């Protein structure tokens, strides 16, 4: 086998190109491909296996194996070396095939005499369509260059298959074909809300009829021009103020710009063009590799980066194929975006023109999910196989509350959801009308309702929802959607704008809560066996005081003499709070010495998120200016149930008396110390939970803006004294949870729960 350097693979591709251009049926073309690859690579065998369906591979052409095995030999994905390659989407080479784990002898082929084996996946945009195999009689070692050359050929075969080059009179179909019939896809809710519409595939399948470059120089130039045009557009967007309503998302675009200039990425694109591929296929090749890594990556930071690169490759392809036409142009007004993954920038491009988003990948903490929540676009993530099951234009219903996607639903399903959508629309209108009313119960107790926020785009909700300020501003979100560490000026500017937008209402800034599920793109991630119990939040802040101090200084500068309220996350013992508070107060003095005004008033509080703190010394409760219960984490630690783990996250009820008793103890401790108390976990935004929290003594709740209306409605309809009686009666009757009693009451008077 000659060394398959870039020049070598170019020669092979050119020969393939000539062969493909000649007339002939699909089968003849496939036969030509295996013949050419075998002779060019000086191998006795070259075979192509293509997928018949999701799980079955079929030998479709061979040079060297028995011809009568073609279209007769079938393998399951995962079975034998070929099946393993299809399953893992990874190349496999061995000089001793028979003794390689997984080897399965196929007697029909007569392959027993071939000792060496190398196979690569035939894949397009991360979807495996088949396997290309080369075998040699003698034991030999295949070099990386040889494997790389085979991958390039496999890429071309995939493109040809997609363009229908191998369709013959026998109707051999290599793609999955058009799906019909209803399909329910179960994913995870990343942004609530329900929407009905038609599928808009984010990556309409590009058909490249000419995957092999006629002239490498031309392709190099085309790639260069497309990259320059793409970068230029991103620059103009940022510099030219073209962001318009998206201005608060400037940071996202900054991160994006950085990736668009990534040297390693560019080098891989150029190398793919050098190997003889057309510019489009070169981009797809690099994109396939990114996606294969994405499948394997468990590190959330790495996955985010790979998503951004995937997103950029999509953009680049659009420039190459359509000269950068607007991605969202011509979208029907009821479009629902379906994609494997989407970057925050691409989502912004579509915002306002789509009703919902469904992603095969993605996570709750992904950048796109953060943006979707801020813009109130329903989103379901981890919707397995959805891009394969959906056809463009299919009817679709997205249930962002339940994390479900109904593809081509039955008319009865559509009708049920339409009813729900109408009811929600009506309810929203009512809630808006009630936004100015206080959340006062029938027995005259006042509960202050505030909103949770994290990026600037959240703040317009302050007015619409009638929230009484921001009870939790998760500062890390702003960090998470950036590609690099924001400097002091940038941070101060941001905090200042948040205070401006709040217009005098209090904003509780929470200092960086990183670690566990929250990953900063620019911070090296420490591998930890149990990240939720690991080095996170205040622990990182106190161990890395430089970063913490910088944030404190930015907050003080951003306040510029205005009132400032700050809390520290995940305090597990009193000393951590004292240390954080001392550090903060020292910075106030230091900055004052430098001429920066002290905050008009300064309130420093703590988040109670670990059960240990419920039993902390009195002095802690007396020292803190306020306490805010982070119910999400407190629940996870109280029940030892990971909040990120779908299997256990919903297993225990917040309304279990055991948890309510723990919370009641917090209320008592704060009352004894005269310390204001609030609750800012997700439970605060669920009407029945909010009512129970008010009943045990919470007078301040902070929640998603969309929850404020429903919570206000329930509180105004309830009397807290009666609620306590109902809960106690249930407890005496032996109930584990207060839920049944409270839900029964609410339903009885027709409340939306
Ligand atoms: C919580 O833990 O309840 C909380 C509000 O913080 P986060 O969800 O950001 O961890
Ligand atoms: Mg928390």
In short:
This protein has 753 residues and is α/β, with parallel strands linked by helices. Helices cover 45% and strands 16% of the residues.
Number of helices: 27
The unreliable regions are 169-177
Q: Strand tally, please?
A: 23
- What's the overall geometry? elongated
What proportion of the residues form beta strands (DSSP E)? 15-25%
Q: What is the typical, i.e. mean, pLDDT?
A: 86
Associated small molecules: phosphoenolpyruvate, magnesium ion
Largest sheet properties: 9 strands, mixed
Structural class: alpha/beta
Distance between the termini: 70 Å
Based on CA atoms alone, the radius of gyration comes out at 30 Å
Helix content: 40-55%
Key traits:
27 helices; 16% strand; single chain; binds magnesium ion; 9-stranded mixed sheet; binds phosphoenolpyruvate; 753 residues; 8-stranded mixed sheet; alpha/beta
How do the helices and strands line up, and which of them pair or pack?
Layout: H1 6-21, H2 26-40, E1 45-53, E2 56-63, E3 74-76, H3 80-88, E4 92-94, E5 116-124, E6 127-136, H4 144-162, E7 183-186, E8 188-191, E9 194-201, H5 216-239, H6 250-260, H7 263-274, H8 279-296, H9 300-322, E10 335-339, H10 344-350, E11 356-359, H11 367-374, E12 379-381, H12 386-389, E13 395-399, E14 404-407, H13 411-433, E15 439-440, E16 446-453, H14 460-465, E17 470-474, H15 475-480, H16 488-502, E18 507-510, H17 538-543, H18 545-559, E19 564-571, H19 574-593, E20 602-608, H20 618-623, E21 627-629, H21 631-639, H22 646-649, H23 657-673, E22 677-679, H24 687-695, E23 700-703, H25 705-717, H26 720-732, H27 739-748
Helix pairs in contact: 1-2, 1-4, 5-6, 5-7, 5-9, 7-8, 8-9, 10-11, 13-25, 16-18, 18-19, 24-25, 24-26, 24-27, 26-27
